[in-house]
Amino acid sequence: MDPIEKLMPNTGKPVDQLEYSRAIGCLMYDMTSTRPDIAYAVDRLSKFTSNPSRQHWHLITRTNHVEDSSSTSEWVFLLGGGAISWAFKKQTCITGSTMKSEFVALVAAGKEAEWLRNLIYNIPIWPKPIVPISIL
């Protein structure tokens, strides 16, 4: 849900209040069990349970469409206090849970970390790391 979107009180024909309240209840259950990402939308939409409009109902149905939403992968790599690589992009796949989405982001960040490690290792300015020797 867009945080800038202005939600207005209903002035027209109301949507069925009982059905709207049930939908909010279902979203609250989803929010507390498996979908913390919808907390903001549920909070804003639950304020209109006494007199919901068609706009509010449309936003509720849009909030619950997991198959239409994709998460974002974000990371920043720092070297010497400065950012040397960063990304903020939508994931190309749609996952069913927040944990799976985190794994997708972890894989992408891991590939970037490996590439940066290889780049820094091949720069001749910095000394190569010394492998510790064990004496038994």
UniProtKB/TrEMBL annotation:
Protein name per the record: Zinc finger, CCHC-type
